[in-house]
Write a structure and sequence with these properties.
Blueprint lengths: L7 H10 L3 E5 L3 H9 L4 E4 L3 H4 L11 H14 L4 E5 L9 H13 L5 E3 L7 H9 L4 E6 L5 H4 L11 H15 L3 E5 L3 H10 L4 E4 L7 E4 L1 H4 L17 H18 L20 H10 L34
Parallel strand pairs: 1-2, 1-8, 2-3, 3-4, 4-5, 5-6, 6-7, 7-8
Helix pairs in contact: 2-4, 4-5, 5-6, 6-8, 8-9
The structure holds 3-methyl-2-oxobutanoic acid.
């Protein structure tokens, strides 16, 4: 498994070698660290964050500042993967100069390694200008969620007559303009396989079958966070909605019955103090009473070495105080 940084050249070589590319959406540093450790090749800071993070019905309300904020967080958590920042709705549609400025911000302020934009041949000139300015571009054709209202909803594309040819033309126009990769979303697998075979740049499919050079899923879908969203193309690898609910139910119950926090999960006044000294414990509670002190739990600190100081909240991105 390659541990050096994934670049747009790595991705091209992967296609040449017939190695499949694994891409996932990602919106924060903690997930970025985990997905990067699992060797996902590309982390897409997708404007899908408008739906899965912000709770909107579509991706349309997402702003460039939202994208910069999340891209920065993902870049901080990433060591190996290539990080793609998605250009949000109306950040590139109203003019080439505006688009270059905004893509530049996503790279400079957000730290994205490349950008993605939706649309085919109509954006070929823009893609050429971005690439000439040193901004690598990933295209996105088929079901393009920013065109939700124009498409009449999230519908499979490419089934009507002539649509397959248009999709192929779009893909070829993006490749000719210098795009380094193209997302194929929500199109019949035969068309996606044909496009993938005809391009020398890698295609990344979502709802586009196994003939693409790589695959992408929204990380929240893969983890089963939203149990009411189960489209055919999503494989749910975990049922996190149930697991999270079970864990949080247990936490709420522990808080309510006073069993959390235990003595071992608290800071005694005297470091290393053992729980079997109720008198001392009472004095701690008298000095700093915050309510909800649980009963003594015999043996709750048994696994702590004598003199161990309880550890304060820590995460991989923070060192202990
Ligand atoms: O915004 C997004 O997450 C995307 C992927 C689904 C390709 O564009």
């Amino acid at each position: 498994m390659k541990t050096s940084k994934v670049t747009i050249h790595t991705l091209r070589q992967m296609k040449e070698r017939g190695e499949k590319i694994a891409m996932l959406t990602c919106y924060d540093a903690s997930f970025a660290r985990l997905l990067d450790e699992s060797h996902a090749d590309i982390l897409l800071v997708g404007d899908s964050l408008g739906m899965v993070i912000q709770g909107h019905e579509t991706t349309l309300p997402v702003t460039l500042d939202d994208m910069i904020y999340h891209t920065r967080a993902v870049v901080r958590g990433t060591r190996r993967a290539h990080v793609v920042g998605d250009m949000p709705f109306m950040s590139y549609q109203s003019g080439i100069e505006q688009a270059i400025d905004n893509a530049g911000r996503l790279m400079k302020d957000g730290g994205a390694h490349s950008i993605k934009l939706e649309g085919g041949a109509q954006h070929a000139e823009l893609v050429g200008r971005l690439v000439a300015a040193g901004i690598p571009v990933m295209g996105h054709i088929g079901l393009t969620p920013q065109s939700f209202h124009q498409l009449g909803g999230f519908k499979i594309q490419g089934r009507e007559s002539g649509a397959a040819i248009r999709l192929l033309e779009d893909a070829k126009a993006l490749e000719a303009a210098g795009a380094y990769s193209i997302v194929l979303e929500g199109i019949p697998m035969e068309i996606a396989a044909d496009i993938s075979a005809q391009l020398s740049i890698p295609t990344i499919g979502i709802g586009a079958g196994a003939g693409c050079d790589g695959q992408v899923l929204v990380i929240y879908d893969l983890l089963g966070i939203n149990e009411s969203f189960k489209p055919v193309f999503v494989r749910t690898y975990e049922n996190l909605s149930t697991r999270i609910r079970t864990a949080v139910d247990a936490y709420v119950a522990d808080v309510r019955d006073g069993s959390f926090p235990s003595f071992a999960e608290s800071f005694p006044l005297v470091a290393g103090q053992q729980p079997s000294t109720p008198r001392k414990r009472a004095s701690v509670s008298a000095i700093a009473h915050v309510g909800g002190c649980g009963p003594d739990l015999p043996g709750e600190a048994d696994d702590k070495a004598e003199g161990d100081e309880p550890v304060a909240y820590s995460s991989p991105t923070r060192s202990d105080p």
